[in-house]
């Protein structure tokens, strides 16, 4: 049991947000590697390739995604299948007495036009693979030429339009950019709450019930002079209920609490039951909800009994009757009813017209 409660809430808030620093830091390290190794910007902003003979040079620089203009493309008669569907059509063109292979989308070549005079295309530079080798085998047979002969005349790299996934690049950029921004904001907020604990959400909630800083200082002072009831991570002082667990920190004036109850959770692995833990649920005015998970039954029962004695207007225990009372008191139910009444009124007016 903790004996020194001097600035205990402040220390608990700092400890909570230090632990929460780990997740955004690890994710930012991970996403940094993705930014470095995934060619997100290359897809969105492809390199302009002057001529098709530059493929090997650009590939060596890891500039895989390019945009270029091609002339005098001829259909080879062969296609590439992917998942049982035609993914592209193989074309060839000549540049400075050397042959180059280009794989075009079915829509680009209108499903196999015999000849294309001029074409602006965005594609991905690929090194020869099994499909490419199979294509050269077939072409050498068609031309009655040896495999070695055709390989000596055709470049070992080819340009693939179907592998240029522009939409995927946009989706990837949005996801990576959004998640990076989210992680940076989370990191900045955690650092802020460690530096200025009175700006953290547990203290911000106190602003619903009065001057935030004054209430926070009062709660710290009351806890420092020893609480009236204390468990491992829940405390009751003269005017406040305080939670300082590894799951969160909460501070709420006792007179603002309107409903308390507990529920149990059975922890098991397959058929083996490990233990039962209990969660204390507190509802306060201004739509403040506090959950204190993984406590023992005797601790929660003691807290509930003490709070009920300190504030006789608190509803104790979960029941449908208590739920409806709180729903009505908090205004959620009434607001929904009013909204439904407005819709019904609009509907009736339309019928009259």
Keywords:
353 residues, alpha+beta, PH-domain like, five-stranded mixed β-barrel, four-stranded antiparallel β-sheet, 12 helices, 14 strands, 44% helix
Verbal overview:
This protein is α+β, with helices and mostly antiparallel strands and 353 residues long. The model is unreliable at 333-337 (pLDDT under 50). It has helices at 8-19, 22-37, 40-44, 55-60, 130-142, 147-153, 166-195, 201-206, 212-224, 297-310, 320-330, 332-352, and strands spanning 47-48, 65-82, 85-95, 98-104, 115-127, 154-160, 229-230, 234-236, 240-245, 248-253, 257-269, 272-284, 288-295, 315-316. It is elongated, with a radius of gyration of 34 Å. It is 44% helix and 31% strand. The longest helix is centred in the middle third of the chain and has 30 residues, at 166-195. The chain has 12 helices and 14 strands.
Strand order of the largest sheet: 2-3-4-6-5
Q: Tell me the total number of β-strands.
A: 14
Helix count, DSSP H or I runs of 4 or more residues: 12
Poorly predicted spans: 333-337
Q: Report the principal-axis shape.
A: elongated
Order of helices and strands: HHHEHEEEEHHEHHHEEEEEEEHEHH
Mean pLDDT across all residues, rounded? 88
CATH class of the domain at 201-318: Mainly Beta
Radius of gyration: 34 Å
CATH topology of the domain at 201-318: PH-domain like
**Content of β-strand:** 25-35%
Describe the biggest sheet?
A: 5 strands, mixed, barrel
Instruction: Return the structural class.
Output: alpha+beta
Q: What is the helical fraction, as a range of percent?
A: 40-55%
CATH architecture of the domain at 201-318: Roll
Q: Measure the end-to-end span.
A: 72 Å
């Amino acid at each position: 049991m903790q004996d020194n409660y001097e600035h205990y809430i402040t220390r608990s808030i700092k400890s909570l947000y230090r632990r929460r620093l780990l997740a955004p830091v690890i994710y930012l390290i991970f996403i940094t590697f993705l930014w470095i190794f995934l060619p997100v910007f290359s897809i969105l902003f492809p390199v302009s390739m002057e001529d098709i003979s530059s493929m090997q040079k650009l590939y060596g620089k890891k500039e895989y995604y390019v945009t270029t203009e091609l002339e005098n493309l001829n259909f080879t008669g062969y296609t590439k299948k992917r998942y049982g569907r035609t993914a592209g059509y193989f074309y060839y063109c000549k540049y400075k007495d050397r042959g180059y292979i280009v794989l075009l989308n079915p829509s680009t070549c209108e499903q196999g036009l015999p000849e294309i005079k001029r074409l602006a295309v965005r594609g991905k530079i690929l090194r020869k693979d099994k499909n490419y080798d199979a294509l050269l085998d077939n072409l050498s047979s068609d031309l009655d030429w040896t495999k070695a002969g055709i390989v000596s005349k055709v470049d070992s790299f080819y340009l693939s339009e179907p592998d240029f996934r522009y939409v995927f690049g946009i989706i990837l950029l949005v996801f990576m950019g959004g998640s990076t921004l989210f992680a940076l904001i989370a990191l900045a907020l955690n650092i802020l709450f460690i530096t200025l604990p009175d700006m953290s959400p547990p203290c911000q909630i106190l602003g619903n019930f009065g001057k935030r800083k004054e209430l926070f200082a009062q709660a710290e002072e009351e806890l420092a002079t020893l609480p009236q009831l204390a468990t491992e991570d829940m405390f009751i002082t003269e005017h406040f209920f305080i939670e300082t667990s590894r799951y969160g920190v909460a501070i709420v004036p006792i007179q603002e609490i309107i409903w308390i109850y507990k529920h149990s959770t059975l922890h098991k692995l397959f058929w083996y039951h490990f233990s039962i833990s209990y969660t204390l649920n507190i509802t306060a005015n201004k739509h403040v909800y506090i959950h204190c998970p993984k406590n023992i039954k005797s601790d929660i029962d003691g807290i509930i009994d003490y709070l009920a004695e300190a504030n006789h207007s608190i509803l104790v225990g979960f029941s449908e009757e208590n739920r409806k009372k709180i729903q009505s008191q908090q205004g959620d139910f009434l607001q929904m009813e009013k909204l439904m009444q407005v819709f019904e009124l609009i509907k009736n007016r339309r019928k009259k017209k």
